[in-house]
Specification:
single chain, 7 helices, GMP Synthetase, Chain A, domain 3
C-alpha cells in the first residue's frame, strides 16, 4: 500500500490515535486542528450563544423599529403633512424628516412640530424618538 506525500506527512506526525471524526476532519481540512484547539484552551461556544451575540450586535430589534417609523408616520400624522414630509432616518433618538418645500417646512416647524413629536413619541416611545429634525430635500 503506497501513501501520497500528504498522507505520509500526516502519518509520520501522528503520535496519538485519532478517532474517526478527527480523521475525517483532518482529511477534509488538510490539517490536524487538534493542536490548534488545544492552544485556544477549549474555548467553544454553543450555536445559540453565537446567534444571540450576533443578533445583539446587529441590533435587529432597533432596526425593525426604525423601519416601522415610516409606517407609524403615515398612520398617525395628518395626511396633508405626510404628502409633503416623510421620515428618512432615525439616529440616536433624532428622527430626520425630509420636507418637499420651504413653505411646508415653515408650516411644520412653526405650527405642527410639537404635535408631531408627541404623536411619534406616543406611538414609538420616548427613547426611540427624542427629537425631530426637519430638512428640505
Amino acid at each position: 500500500m503506497s501513501f501520497s506525500p500528504f498522507q505520509r506527512r500526516f502519518k509520520s506526525r501522528r503520535s496519538r490515535r485519532l478517532g474517526p471524526r478527527d480523521r475525517a476532519l483532518r482529511d477534509w481540512r488538510g490539517i490536524d486542528v487538534k493542536e490548534l484547539e488545544k492552544t485556544h484552551g477549549g474555548k467553544s461556544f454553543s450555536a445559540g450563544a453565537v446567534v444571540k451575540n450576533l443578533l445583539g450586535k446587529l441590533q435587529l430589534d432597533r432596526r425593525r423599529a426604525e423601519t416601522e417609523v415610516v409606517k407609524v408616520w403615515n398612520q398617525t400624522i395628518d395626511p396633508t403633512v405626510t404628502g409633503h414630509a416623510q421620515p428618512v432616518n432615525i439616529h440616536h433618538g433624532t428622527l430626520f424628516v425630509s420636507v418637499d418645500s420651504s413653505v411646508w417646512l415653515d408650516e411644520i416647524v412653526r405650527y405642527r412640530r410639537h404635535e408631531i413629536l408627541q404623536r411619534m413619541q406616543h406611538a414609538m416611545g420616548r427613547e426611540m424618538v427624542k427629537k425631530i429634525s426637519f430638512r428640505i430635500g
